[in-house]
Amino acid sequence: MDALTASLVGKNDWRQEQVGVVLATAYFLSHCDLVTGNMLGLVSRLDSIRELIRERWDLLSSGLTGVSARLLLWLAYLDLRRSESLPRLYLRSRLYLKEAFGESYPSLELRDDMIQDPVNLKFAEGMSILGKILQHARHGHENTPELRDDLESLHSEMIELERECDLALQGFDSGNSISITRTSYHWLNLKATTQCGLILLSRMRNKSYRTDDEAQSAAHKILKITIQLGKANKLHNPHSVFSVLPTFLAGIETVDEVHQDWIMRFLEDARGWGLHVQRAAKVLHRAVERQKQTGCRLGFKDIADLASEQLVL
């Protein structure tokens, strides 16, 4: 990986395939680091990619395709850093799977991709908003008027995104539940993303309370989505590094002990996904016990301190 990035630093004409190889390799190795618990390797690799982006962004962006822009989006999520350019870059090409598989890509699959296009765009938007919220939560900024205004703006964005999810999911409503298709699966995951954001915002705005109605509602919605996807056999394997975060946050926020027990069993059953899930299960158990003892919410830093090793979700 170091040799690949070093080979690009001194060049002034990058080919698209070179950029794609670097980003694909970085994402693959980063995901391996995540599931094997190699946090030092993960941090080091993301640092080198960020430095490459900072120094040679003009050349890098000129070589981005739909596939590599999507890889860059996930690398940015892993690094918990917001990039203003990512949604714009993603708009250049939404046919990223056709780019990956070439002319042999079936027309039926291409049609399904076009149907999913709106949710793919919204998911990029949702991750960008969540990244801003996570930055605030991680840094623990003082409660200033500027911060309150910023959090209120982010809250409004998440509420609007949730409304769009609910509107889109109406087309998959079969009466008592949502019919799970490839498209509705992504809308449900996006809705879970919005609920993550609402829980985090609630915990930042109301630190002295154990919970509030909006956060409890968000935790319940995440649990409901997880159960829906489980019934549709969509949770046998993790579909992305993002699979754990919503359920983890719901487990910390909910005050319903039955729901907490179910979520802890869910994470225990998912231990085979990687060490990051095993660590999340341990931290969740400790956080639940600590909140029971104190009767108060744990802050973002307090939760991180409960992990004996670095935790990335």
Automatic annotation (TrEMBL):
<dbReference type="InterPro" id="IPR021858">
    <property type="entry name" value="Fun_TF"/>
</dbReference>
<keyword id="KW-0539">Nucleus</keyword>
<dbReference type="Pfam" id="PF11951">
    <property type="entry name" value="Fungal_trans_2"/>
</dbReference>
<protein>
    <recommendedName>
        <fullName>Transcription factor domain-containing protein</fullName>
    </recommendedName>
</protein>
